[in-house]
Amino acid sequence: MTLLLGLNSLAERRRIADGALKPLRDSLAADLTPLIGREPYVPAGKALLSRAGGRCDFDGSDLEFDPFSPHAHRCPACGRLNTGRWHDGWWLYPYHLWLAERAVHAATLHVLVGDIRNAQLARAILRAYARQYDGYPNRDNVLGPSRLFFSTYLESLWLLHICIAADLLGAGGDAETRDIVHERIARPSAEMIGSYHEGASNRQAWNAAAIVAAHRLTGKTCDDEPVAAALGDIEWLLANAVGDDGSWFEGDNYHQFAHRGLWYGITLGGAAGYVFQDSTIERFNAGFASPFRTALPDFTYPARKDSRYAVSLRQWRFAESCELGLARGDDATLRWALGRLYRDDVPREDTGRSHSSGEAERPTAATSLSRADLGWKALLFAREALPDLSGPEPASITIRSQGYTIHRRDAGTVYVALDWGQGGGGHGHADRLNVFFAHGRARWLDDLGTGSYVDPSLHWYRSTLAHNAPLVDGRSQQYSDGWLTGSTSGAEFEGVAARAEIAPGVVVMRTLVTAESYFVDEVQWAASRQIRFELPIHVNVAADGLAFRDTDLTGAGGLEDGFDFVRDARVAKVGAGTPVRISGDRDGQRVSGTVWISESAEWFTATGPAQPASTLLPFHLIRVHGTSGTIRTVWRWRGDGTIEFSDNEVAVGTELGIDRHIVTPGSWVARTHRGGVMRIEREAGPGVVQRESAPEPGGGAVIAGPSATTAQCELHRTTSHAGWFANLPVDERASWATFDLGEPHYRRTEDSWREAGEPRARAAIGADAYGIVVDVAVETPAPVFVPAGAVNPYDNESADINGHGVQLYCATAGGSGAWMVVPEAGSQSARVRPISGWGSLAPPFAEWRLVSGGFEISIRIPADARTDRFALGLIVNDASPGRVRRRGQLVLNGTDGEFAYLRGDRCDTTRMLSFTVA
Ligand SMILES: [Zn+2]
Ligand SMILES: [Zn+2]
Asked: 213-231 burial, b if ≥16 CB within 10 A, otherwise e?
């Protein structure tokens, strides 16, 4: 019995590897040639994530990963070699994954072919890691505990391969190495991974699979804990994070990644005799075809949510995924897709397989492919003979679990899509009602996906402004799910209508009607108040007849709103109901269109980051003030003709006649010149949702306390100017609200509260004639204060979060604000940095002093003396010398066992406490 296969299957796979899949077997063996007969390089260093590492110093491009070059890293764009500790630290991340995967390759070839040199290579890698494992430090991580990496899930990817290699070696006769790996690596690593559960995240699929593999290595069964719990996680993820159609909820990129992790979970569980529910298996099997159902005409997947941009499906991994899917059952989409991958006449490029970084793949260039290009999983699981690889190409489709509707025309070369639904969790973008439009290789309306997670440009890519999606009052949309209000399909027309509440009290309905040579896009909004409504259109086309002047294009001021990234803005006035013609050419295609706006509007043009972020692309933006309005655009990819608008009709001339679209609040009826009719019933108008507005940091309302666990806190105003709390007579202290923060308030990273030395703080909240006073005494043997002007080389958070300091969030009836307060060494005053997006309440005065066993900070918020209710959030950052990232946080309102990773200087408004001044 092996982790993935039974022993009988192994004999069967030997036969296939010596027959139909011999070319694959031989090419995998050829990849290993440079390692055979040599001592593998197993670095003692832990991988480091930084802003500079892995990106060209000269142009920002992603550097190549060459497993044989630890200290010189070539840029594929400019060809220059990049050197230095940031790049070397980055290189360790793909390298450790690459090396573990080579051990799997070697062990697989050993059990299938019996070449002893392969066994020696796998054994050398595994035993070196076993010797070194406990020397890799579990500290300073970005996202969860890890020894070799900076995030738990990466350790899971690596551990999974380490376990599979050790298991295959064991099956080949080397039980000793398997047992050493279990004792020195698998057991401690799985225990660490198990301490950090990531919920409904793609990463949890990997964590769960790694835990199963680690504990199955020496015989735990699927009834034993923690194997049973981890397989239960796999089952739960398939029921809750995957739709009926098999697609993962976090977007196309994470679908791929999560589905591969689920493959391990399902395969390991199946080999262990775990019985998954039928619906679980059905969803999993359906997931193989998902990326091909949404593919753009250029055979890339759309860069929805946090997807990498323009990633080609013509990579060996996608071919292998098709093969693994077909090994489990027939599927017409997979047959069509694999046929296209093996048949299409595209140039042959380096597939990247020999330097692939395990399961944390890096997208490679499109290339022609054959079965010899697949990976080790195909060698163990692919069908001996493939079925007939023909099948119908994907047609128009609505993927309800994603909230994504695609209209396909002209044999799939025209792609018009509305991204209306699923918000997408932590990897979602504020982009409800985004529109895609592509014709062949020409991507007219597109989603830029994401860039580096540690670069400030991430805020641009996640902003509404970077999408073809509406926004209100210069702010990115609130995160929410949209909903479908109508759809129809037919030979002459297809239609989809959906709506979303993109800001409190603002509902937008967007309708796309696609015809034979054009589509109509209608955006209609209604608000319960006067708003500034904006629709960005990211397309490089000219707008005719507008008189532009230079201007500034600014938003509400939040970093997440994206306006800080905008350059070269110009503006023109457009009269109500005056059509504006747009047209352009690219990639051998031509587009023309006409935009009609029901209200008088401002039309901006500007530039913003493209892909990569160091390049800029022009875009348009339409701004309208008021409580409601409509924008209709006709986009034509072929032919020409008149386009006329009135309040309730769009008439589109084609070579053969005029199509009329009659638009009423509740329906859309289209009639072609030939007499064909299409009708979509839509809910009447976009509608205004009247609901109590959610607590908004900038809203100026007093924010209620989060839960029943926290009563209203009461305090008494003192008439005199309050000094240091510690210096007050005991009877005066009774006027304050005080909190002793300790273990129940601790948000840990790697160290538990006890392991961190039991950090504590005392917070005292008072009010005097001048405002609100917050006095915090922090117990620490060794304060770490980040100096002013320090730069954070690791990620896009402010440097000051990684030392001791206080994050303070305050909402009063007169306004709200938030600040990071950090003691300045050599001064009595503490530095105050406003935290963006929290309002404009005047910043506090802050002073600090060293005291025995720690330090104290006194913060005075100059609030109106009549303020008798306010809400506060308070977080004390905990640091220790020698770390580069903070160790943890003490949170005023307590924690639910959560971790401090990735929280930056943010505070959830539901975690604030309410205070009443008596
Ligand atoms: Zn370069
Ligand atoms: Zn996006």
From this structure: bbbbbbebebeeebbbebb
pLDDT digits (tens, 9 = 90+) for 365-386: 999 999 999 999 999 999 999 9
| 209: nearest Cα among 251, 271, 277 | 271
Q: Which tens digits make up the pLDDT trace of 549-605?
A: 999 999 998 788 999 999 999 999 999 999 999 999 999 999 999 999 999 999 999
Q: How far is the C-alpha of 479 from the C-alpha of 431, rounded, in Å?
A: 8
911 Cα to the center of ligand 1, angstroms: 44
Average pLDDT over every residue of 293-299: 94
Query: Could you report the per-residue pLDDT of 513-550, keeping only the tens digit for each?
Result: 999 999 999 999 999 999 999 999 999 999 999 999 99
Q: Which ligand is nearest to the CA of 305?
A: 2
Ligand 1 centroid from CA 96, angstroms: 24
Residue 436 CA, ligand 2 centroid: distance in Å:
11
Per-residue pLDDT at 711 exceeds 60: no
pLDDT value at 911 more than 90:
no
Q: Which of 130, 134, 142 is nearest to 48 (CA)?
A: 142
Torsion of CA 77, 78, 80, 85, to 10 degrees: -50
Q: By C-alpha distance, which of 451, 448, 401 is closest to 248?
A: 401
Nearest ligand (C-alpha, residue 61): 1
Residue 400 CB-density burial (10 A; 0-12 exposed, 13-18 middle, 19+ buried): middle
Q: How many other CB atoms are there within 10 angstroms of residue 829's CB atom? A: 11
Segment 655-683 shows an average pLDDT of 89
Q: 460: CA distance to ligand 2 center in Å?
A: 9
CA–centroid distance, 612 to ligand 2, in Å, is 14
**Distance from Cα 73 to the centre of ligand 1, integer Å:** 10
Q: Which residue, among 888, 867, 868, has the nearest Cα to 876 in the 3D structure?
A: 888
Q: What is the largest CA-CA distance in the chain?
A: 91
Residues around ligand 1, an ion, CB closer than 5 A: 56, 58-59, 61, 75, 77-78
Å from CA of 445 to ligand 2 middle: 12
| Backbone torsion region of residue 674, taken as left when φ is above 0, otherwise alpha when ψ lies between -120 and 50, otherwise beta | alpha
Cα of 118 vs centre of ligand 2, distance in Å, is 44
Mean pLDDT (whole number) for 395-403: 92
In whole angstroms, give the CA distance from residue 374 to residue 348: 15
**CA distance readout (Å), 844 to 649, 700, 733, 875, 916:** 56, 17, 21, 16, 20
- Judged against a pLDDT cut of 70, whether residue 696 lies above it is answered with no
Strand-pair partners of 648 = none
User: What is the 356 CA–ligand 1 centroid distance (Å)?
Assistant: 21
3-state DSSP assignment of residue 671? strand
Phi and psi, residue 474, nearest 5°: 70, 15
Q: Tell me if 745 sits within 8 A of 890, measured CB to CB.
A: yes
Q: How far, in Å, is the centroid of ligand 1 from the Cα of 351?
A: 21
CA–CA gap between residue 820 and residue 835 (Å, rounded): 7
Q: Which ligand is nearest to the CA of 464?
A: 2
Taking alpha carbons only, the member of 494, 499, 333, 525 closest to residue 417 is 494
Strand residue runs (E) in 446-562: 471-472, 483-489, 494-503, 506-514, 518-537, 542-543, 549-550
